[in-house]
Amino acid sequence: MAFYKISIKTSLTMLNLKGLNPLISTRSSNTRAITFLLTEVLATITVASSLFTKTLEADSVVDNISGIVFSIQTICKEVTMLLCRDEFVALLNYVEEFWPVNEFGIESGTNIRNIQKSTSKALKIFRCLLLMCTVIIISEPFFAEGRQFPVSWIDISCIQTSLICYGVIYGFLCGCTIGLVIFLSLIDGLFFNLLSYGYCELEQVKYALFNLSIDGDVRGDQVETLREIAVLVRHHVTSLEYVQRVKKLMSKVMLYQFSSSLFTLCTGLYVLTYQGFPPSVEAAVKFVPFVACAAFQIFAYCVAGQKISEQTESIANAAYECRWWFKHQPRLQRSICLIIQRSHRRIVLSAGGLWNLDMDTFIRILKASFSLLTFMQTMYIPE
């Protein structure tokens, strides 16, 4: 599937700028990766220390914590890229064994390409939203009085007296923020492409079942059909192993992803409403991007998890609808039964085993967020 290979190759090439390409493990790439990671860790610690050394308003505290959460999320995903190089290499080796797009004719090829186009559009929307929210965040100083930075923890005296000093530091902060968002979106895009690869390959398995060559004029099992079903069963197992590996790789990362997104969602909504509704322009500019990013990240992974689970289970329907009933062919029927039985054990992506990635979870998270928001308003908003 050329589309996903090109997309994955592009992501890996960009990630190699920070030494995070799992296919390239050299002293130079490892040095780059560790240097960037240490810099990000030190910056995160600096932001965190401001919470204990300065007296800040509630919205500034939430602003700082949201920045810390976002930074840790990026660091966790980068550490995963470093520590799980072998897993990524194994996944890319699986990809080499997958069938070409047109393996089962023009109709199946067209369907697969439509799925690829939909995936590409979804990724573009996801990245555009992240970039838009980033632009709004770094534009916060334009809505505030005096010379300020997008983050409230920086307090440098020279910015009030020197425009050059302010411009240099502001440009540096903007560059760092945009860089973090770009690499975060690249890693997310890599995960989405790997999941979509598995989805499309399972779609190919369904087309293979529909196209089994069964000749009604030949009595009993056909040797050629048994060979096809043997290849098909092996390929089905390979595809499921691939999805299981992606699930295992994502599980721990998704645990922090969901925890941090839920925290950002709750605190952002709280700050937006604790002084009344609608919020001020300054509060909206500062926190709406955080809330939007958190909600959309959860939504995107829940949709992906829902689609993968449904696809693994839908193989059973495709197997049942193939022409196994056309005549008495016991060995073929036993093979079909194996596929159906295996497909009934649907693969469910999860966040550390605590949350299943599906739309039910997304709805529950939204309900829990608003319930927690109501509790926080009751407890902490003054009469």
Automatic annotation (TrEMBL):
Q: Which UniProt keywords apply?
A: Cell membrane, Membrane, Olfaction, Receptor, Sensory transduction, Transducer, Transmembrane, Transmembrane helix
**GO annotations of cellular component type:** plasma membrane
- Record Pfam families: 7tm_6 (PF02949)
Membrane-spanning regions, if any?
A: 125-144, 164-187, 253-272, 284-304
Top-level taxon: Eukaryota
Record's keyword annotation contains Ribosomal protein: no
What GO MF terms are annotated?
A: odorant binding; olfactory receptor activity
- Where in the cell does this protein reside? Cell membrane
Please indicate if the UniProt record lists rRNA-binding as a keyword.
no
Q: Among the record's GO biological process terms, what is one? A: signal transduction
Could you tell me the membrane topology recorded for this protein?
Multi-pass membrane protein
Family, per entry: Belongs to the insect chemoreceptor superfamily. Heteromeric odorant receptor channel (TC 1.A.69) family.
Q: What is this protein called?
A: Odorant receptor
Q: Which organism is it from?
A: Anomala corpulenta
This protein's encoding gene: OR11
